[in-house]
Amino acid sequence: MNALTTTTKPNPMQTFLWLLKREYWEHRGGFFWAPLIAGGVVIAIALLSLIVAETTAARHGIQLGGMNLDTIAHNMTAEQVAQFNSGLTVGLMGLSIPIMITLAFVVFFYLLGALYDDRRDRSVLFWKSLPISDLDTVLSKVVAAVLLAPLLAIAATIVLHLAFLVLISGYAGLHQVNPLPLLWNPAQLVSLWLKLILLIPVNAVWALPTVGWLLLCSAFARSKPFLWAVAVPVALGAIMGFTHLLQQLSIPSAWYWKNIVGRILFGVVPGGWFDIGGNGAFSTLTNGDNVNIALDRFGLVNSLLSWNRILGALASPDLWIGAAAGAGLIVAAIWFRRRRVETSV
Amino acid sequence: MNDVSATTTHIVRARGLAKRYGATVALDHVDFDIAAGRIVGLIGPNGAGKTTALKAILGLTEFEGELSVLGLDPRTQRTELMQQVCFIADVAVLPRWLRVSEAVDFVAGVHPRFSREKCLAFLARTKLQPTQRVRELSKGMIVQLHLALVMAIDARLLVLDEPTLGLDILYRKEFYQSLLNDYFDEEKTILVTTHQVEEIEHILTDLIFIKDGKLIVNASMEEIGERYAEVMVGPDKVEAARALKPLNERGIFGKTVFLFDGVPQAQLAQLGELHKPSVADLFVATMKGTYA
Lengths: 345, 292
Description:
heterodimer, A: 345 residues, mainly alpha, 17 helices, 77% helix, globular, B: 292 residues, alpha/beta, Rossmann fold, six-stranded mixed beta sheet, four-stranded antiparallel beta sheet, 29% strand
């Protein structure tokens, strides 16, 4: 029997799914557990706050309850309902910030190690003994970073939102308040979650320069990829600062730090693009004197997540110039993955 | 174009294969062929270029010269090549976080020539448990797992780079026995490097000695048996033996053992008792002065 005639082409899609599964197996802790734990911490803090509130209230003889949220809801004007919904969305979004920060850290260090750790422990020799191209290997790490990890973080966010609402409802129920009409608005929740999911591709395109740069350092470094990733852009900036090179080109040095260093190191922070190509709503929110101002701006958060805002970001050249640069860096990472097998030689 | 075996009789064909790391020459324009159905031992001292040669064959390093493996260019056709070539590079290169079951699932998922049934049958003979992680396994068990994965792949060339380094003798024996009994056949070719020459000498069909990036010996075991001979010579015939320019001599129990290359065996028989030299003795004799 001629062995070669029985060669079957492996299904490329299937191979890619296995590669993603591989990434998940290796990084279950970061991708799956870390966001859940971050959400758990938020819930624990919320629970503690409620307990403290409850005991303080009891100690001072303050009597809560007797309120009827139902009646309140009925008495609210349409504008007030919208404000409340808007506030609830802000609150739920705010709750998810610890998860998103965790995601950013996890993805940052995942990418730094993605093409380095297996070279250091030499298990790269096992992966390279299988019929998988370096292109697929590197792309699977890109997809794990910009798709798989964020999806799992959003799943954890959904769990957190539900747990939080259950907690608040339980608290309300404890005081004979019916939480259902105002807090449990499935359409609003689902639309919030859908928007979070729809933001993944935008975040992904925005993150490409960082993804590419970290993968390149990971594939290139013979040791200490973190140092390469951080020290090179910072040293470059410092040198240009000393020599006033940028000023001579009439480029403010802030431009370099924001558009180069910021984009290649902090692009994995979800929503980093909020501030570009739009009407500065994000700055309005952050510069607002207090949350009430933000809440007073009717549907501000919804506008933050509106199609207009997303399309505004997508129409911004900043996003796409960065994405092209990121793609170039990824190609360079693939090139090094092909040639630099071990860290020693 | 896939029908490589019709156009090439050799599994590996190298012409002028060269590689240098800075000033160090790892491979110095070597030529060699490896035919199908052979078990080739690539033997050499540390730093002789063995691993470089293997890496070139596996497409893991750049090189100069011509090299074709199964009719493919390892530099540009690596992914196709890896469907037909397996390798165990050193011991314990399996990722430490991987579970036994995940390893089987993954290779089954990505390798079109992998047989899960075969692999599970091999694993059933070991103490490995599906849920165990590689980091929980002993070195010997890791090699058992790697071997089970590799033997379940219907590949044409298996490359082994020091596969039993650091294993105890039980694991070492079992390793080569499994390879011979359950894996090797005339369709398959094995290329192996090791320092434990004496353990693989009986399974080799071909021998390549490499020293300072050059091939010193490249012959089948039959040719080696015809070409090299050891004679145990009494004190009276030592001078006569030395006149025939032996490769090496060593004293043993008041007699002297000479190793000859290419001297007719009939002539040697007159000097004393003839032996077939062990590969280890041959190796020591041909590598004289390597580290001096």
